[in-house]
Specification:
Layout (H helix, E strand, L loop, with lengths): L16 E5 L3 H16 L5 E5 L16 E2 L3 H9 L10 E3 L1 E5 L4 E4 L7 E3 L2 H14 L3 E3 L3 E6 L4 E5 L4 E3 L1 E4 L5 H10 L7 E9 L3 H7 L2 E5 L8 E6 L4 E7 L4 H9 L1 H6 L13 E6 L7 E2 L2 E3 L1 H4 L9 H18 L4 H10 L1 H4 L2 H16 L3 H10 L1 H12 L4 H8 L2 H17 L8 E3 L2 E2 L4
Helix pairs in contact: 1-3, 1-9, 2-9, 9-10, 13-14, 14-15
The structure holds flavin-adenine dinucleotide (FAD).
């Protein structure tokens, strides 16, 4: 153990600086919470946030779809004293539809709170501006190095450097920044899925007819774990995720029958399509905190492993980390309390993994349509599908609510049909484009 890395908590005191690497929702929320909590505890902190993007300029793309789902408004209000400004929410989403290879199932269920589609750059700018108003110094430069010693931290950037009592890694899944942390600490980046995202501009009439419904696709084709089509204010955001997704997999996805049934006819589509790459973490990072450092949001891999709600998790973990630093300190020992605060996310990990594993098995063995059929008939299984796709309940609760005898019997019966008797499903009647029926 190095000097200063003992069992102490290393509490922050007035005049100390905390440096945050990354000004996405996690970093900005953490910065704002540090200022607010510092004032509450009578500690006058300096918070310096490095963010390479200038959100106002809208010149850098963000891979995120920008769906803010419950309880985001509650988190903002109760943890940061914020509410979404008028005009931020571009569209209220009103439901979900799950698509298999041949069947679609509009999901019914209830969410407490609103699901809004926003522009991610606007949302990031809003949070970052609130941090600046609270006294946070934002430096629009890329961080290029970190040194952590027993007594302090030095953060290098393409512009100014910053000496601090602690550094917060809020850099998402940026490979370069993860490498900086891995070099300077025992941090190891989380495992992830790759994503490709594109946009279609089908026109107002088509968007109106489609309705504010998020379409999730669980299809049996190679390279794809899941896909989604989300109607936004003036376009459709289309994303796919998997270990090895590429533009070719995206093209196959777009050409697949279930997606073609939903998309506008060819002549209403913008060409050529522009593709963007992104990543989702699917498990926590290793050594995600330590002496004078802590990671939050995607960098920490602290999010629901399947239906992400990544913005919510980034804000929550940012606030938890800030509270720990102000109330307890910046040592490894102090950050044990941070990880305990994140137990709602970490405690759900194995359940989420199990559901992801079963979902992947179902698509691989072309069993998803059978599950949609059960969902159409059985309210308990419908609730399971709704809560999984909306991310409304923890996976632990979903698994416990669904593991009932009647549901198990139905699944076993369908498994026997699928694998032993080899019966086939007929797709149900489709009333109109984008609105499909399910064979009862
Ligand atoms: C395709 C896709 C769609 C998604 N859709 C949704 C959705 O609809 N709703 C939702 O809740 N979640 C969604 N997510 C997840 C969500 O985008 C993330 O979980 C969330 O952005 C994590 O926030 P963060 O603050 O941890 O990291 P980020 O938002 O990634 O922010 C990291 C910031 O750090 C900055 N940065 C990185 N390295 C440096 C450096 N060296 N120097 C300076 N700055 C640096 C970056 O510029 C960036 O602004 C989606 C993810 C993907 C891949």
């Amino acid at each position: 153990m190095r000097e200063g890395e003992g069992d102490g908590l290393i509490p922050l005191k007035s005049g100390d600086t905390v440096c945050i690497l990354g000004g996405g929702p996690g970093g900005s929320a953490c910065a704002l919470a540090l200022m607010q909590e510092g004032r509450r505890q009578g500690i006058d902190l300096k918070v310096v946030l490095f963010e390479q993007k200038r959100f106002k300029e809208h010149t850098q793309y963000n891979q995120c779809i920008g769906v803010l789902s419950p309880p985001l408004e509650t988190i903002l209000r109760e943890m940061l004293g914020l509410s979404l400004p008028p005009g931020m929410a571009k569209k209220e989403m009103a439901g979900y539809c799950l698509h298999g290879d041949r069947l679609d199932l509009p999901l019914t269920g209830e969410e407490t709170g609103h699901t809004w589609a926003v522009s991610r750059a606007d949302f990031d700018e809003f949070l970052c501006d609130r941090a600046i108003e609270a006294g946070v110094e934002v430096i629009n430069n890329r961080v290029t190095g970190i040194e952590i010693s027993a007594g302090d931290v030095l953060v290098y950037s393409e512009g100014r450097n910053c000496r601090a009592a602690a550094v917060v890694g809020a850099f998402g899944l940026d490979d370069g920044s993860a490498a900086l942390f891995e070099e300077a600490t025992a941090y190891r980046r989380p495992d992830h899925l790759n994503t490709i995202i594109t946009r279609l501009y089908p026109g107002d009439d088509f968007l109106k007819q489609m309705g504010p419904v998020i379409h999730a696709f669980l299809l049996s084709f190679e390279g794809l774990e899941f896909g989604a089509v989300t109607p936004k204010q003036d376009h459709l955001s289309i994303n796919i995720a998997g270990r090895n997704v590429s533009s070719r997999v995206m093209l196959n996805f777009l050409r697949s029958a279930p997606v073609q049934r939903l998309l506008p006819p060819q002549n209403y589509r913008e060409k050529p399509l522009h593709y963007f790459r992104g990543k989702f973490p699917i498990c926590p990072a290793r050594n995600l905190f330590g002496h004078r450092y802590v990671t939050i949001g995607d960098a920490a891999g602290l999010m629901r492993p399947f239906k992400g709600k990544g913005i919510n998790s980034a804000i929550l973990t940012g606030v938890y980390a800030a509270r720990t630093m102000v109330r307890l300190g910046v040592s490894r020992k102090a950050f044990q309390s941070y990880i305990r605060d994140c137990s709602e996310l970490t405690g759900d990990l194995w359940y989420g993994r199990a559901l992801r594993f079963l979902t992947n098995l179902s698509t691989r063995f072309q069993f998803m349509d059978r599950l949609l059929k059960i969902g159409g008939e059985d309210p308990v299984f419908m609730a399971c599908l709704f809560n999984s796709v909306s991310g409304h309940l923890p996976y632990k609760t979903i698994v416990r609510q669904t593991a009932t005898f009647p549901v198990a019997i139905k699944i076993v019966r369908e498994l026997v049909n699928r694998f032993v008797l080899h019966t086939s499903l007929r797709p149900g009647p489709r009333s109109k484009k984008g609105e499909a029926g399910l064979t009862p």
